[in-house]
């Protein structure tokens, strides 16, 4: 594998698209992340490697440098801390200490399945662990607290003389509306405050699954623990509840909220604060409908589960696979544009931007005890491709070009580390 930049192409850093830079037909390799011709510009040539070190950004851009990750980390920690004062007493009051402990342990099983799915989806371009931790704790604590605070307003607003009708209303209307709003509010905060890390539908699905996994984890503690605390046959009832929630539907909440994350992710490609809020509102509709459909299953539960819920799950899996394939193609195309500018050879792009190539590169690096360096190089190259995608979207171009220069300098450093 070559470890040196190649002869530069014609692209120059920061130059706008123009008549001399025709829009390449392959610029849009898939339906995801399309680029309008007026926003296209070639990748900077390797002369960028000899630019002086970057100084502070221009004053007009300095205030726009992303700092939302810190705000989410600090603010999220405070919200989680406060939420626990409401959530933990609520759980203990409904489950007792013994039920809480059993429910906590059993809830780890479906949670592990959801987090494994998040890991597999997120492997191509991993999100910051701090941001994923925020997403999980938002789902497990803050969204539960928001739900508990809003629920009483439904009970006061909609009065039913029949207890059964009231319970049906709470399950099929209140739960879908309040819970999906509470979970997806965390998605909106990530999109508004950490837009650098939320720039496509795959990111939306990853964050949504993580939030939903946290929410389902806490909710399962309640259901599993209550099956012990309130039942005359705790073993039998717990087994039934675990079969329903832990085996048959560990991804139910993930699929509900995942539709919101998907829609918000597509909106993030265009990036506009108003569009993000609108996508949040629109994305809640399918999430609430799917949640309502699940909670509405009654006497014909098994038939509806097989005929409706299983196909929905299969469609979700197929959709995620298609998203990953489209993301891979987009990464390869953007790196090929850097290859045309001299940063990589076409063979290197195949190693950096295809699953088989990455496995080959990691195996090669392992033989020289440089696997960690190669992993960092692969990750940096993927980040570079997504930075370029943000440049070609036409939003905050100058700011992203500064980020691009920094990333290209980092690429050179990581390349040298891999080459030894």
Largest sheet: none
Overall structural domain count: 2
**Fraction of residues in helix:** over 70%
User: What structural category characterises the helix and strand content?
Assistant: mainly alpha
Net shape: elongated
Rg measurement, Å: 24 Å
Low-confidence stretches: 7-20, 49-65
Q: What sequence of helices (H) and strands (E) makes up the elements?
A: HHHHHHHHHHHHH
The whole-number mean of residue pLDDT values reads 86
Distance between the termini: 13 Å
Classify the beta-strand content into a percent band: under 5%
Figure out the total of helices.
13
Number of strands: 0
Put the structure in a nutshell.
The protein has 420 residues and is an all-alpha fold. The chain is built from 13 helices and no strands. 74% of the residues lie in helices and 0% in strands.
Describe what you observe in this structure.
- By secondary structure, the chain is an all-alpha fold.
- It has two domains: 68-296, no CATH class; 330-420, no CATH class.
- It is 74% helix and 0% strand.
- It contains 13 helices and no strands.
- Helix 5 runs antiparallel to helix 6 and helix 12 runs antiparallel to helix 13 (397-419).
SSE inventory with pairings:
Blueprint: H1 59-62, H2 68-122, H3 129-157, H4 163-193, H5 201-229, H6 234-247, H7 252-270, H8 273-295, H9 301-340, H10 346-353, H11 355-367, H12 371-392, H13 397-419
């Amino acid at each position: 594998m070559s470890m040196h930049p190649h002869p530069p192409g014609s692209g120059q850093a920061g130059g706008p698209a123009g008549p001399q830079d025709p829009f390449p037909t392959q610029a849009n390799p898939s339906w995801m992340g399309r680029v309008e011709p007026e926003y296209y510009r070639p990748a900077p040539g390797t002369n960028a490697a000899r630019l002086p070190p970057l100084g502070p950004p221009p004053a007009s851009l300095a205030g726009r440098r992303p700092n939302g990750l810190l705000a989410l980390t600090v603010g999220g920690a405070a919200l989680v801390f406060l939420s626990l004062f409401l959530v933990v007493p609520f759980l203990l009051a409904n489950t007792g200490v013994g039920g809480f402990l059993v429910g906590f342990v059993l809830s780890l099983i479906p949670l592990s399945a959801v987090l494994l799915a998040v890991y597999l989806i997120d492997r191509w371009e991993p999100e910051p662990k701090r941001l994923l931790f925020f997403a999980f704790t938002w789902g497990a604590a803050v969204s539960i607290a928001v739900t508990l605070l809003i629920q009483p307003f439904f009970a006061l607003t909609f009065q039913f003389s029949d207890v059964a009708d009231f319970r049906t209303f709470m399950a099929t209307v209140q739960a879908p509306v309040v819970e999906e709003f509470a979970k997806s509010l965390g998605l909106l905060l990530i999109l508004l405050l950490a837009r650098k890390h939320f720039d496509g539908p795959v990111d939306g699905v990853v964050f949504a699954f993580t939030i939903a996994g946290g929410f389902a984890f806490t909710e399962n503690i309640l259901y599993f623990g209550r099956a012990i605390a309130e039942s005359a046959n705790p073993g039998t009832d717990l087994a039934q509840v675990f079969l329903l929630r832990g085996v048959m539907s560990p991804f139910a909440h993930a699929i509900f909220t995942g539709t919101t994350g998907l829609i918000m992710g597509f909106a993030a490609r265009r990036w506009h604060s108003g569009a993000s809020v609108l996508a949040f509102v629109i994305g809640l509709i399918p999430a609430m409908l799917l949640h309502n459909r699940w909670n509405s299953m009654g006497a014909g539960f098994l038939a509806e589960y097989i005929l409706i819920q299983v196909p929905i799950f299969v469609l979700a899996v197929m959709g995620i696979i298609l998203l990953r394939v489209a993301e891979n193609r987009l990464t390869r195309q953007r790196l090929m544009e850097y290859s045309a500018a001299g940063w990589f050879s076409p063979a290197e792009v195949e190693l950096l931007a295809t699953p088989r190539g990455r496995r080959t590169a990691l195996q090669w690096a392992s033989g020289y005890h440089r696997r960690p360096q190669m992993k960092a190089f692969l990750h940096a190259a993927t980040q570079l491709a997504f930075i370029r995608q943000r440049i070609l979207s036409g939003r905050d171009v100058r700011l992203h070009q500064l980020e691009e220069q920094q990333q290209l300098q980092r690429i050179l450093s990581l390349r040298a580390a891999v080459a030894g």
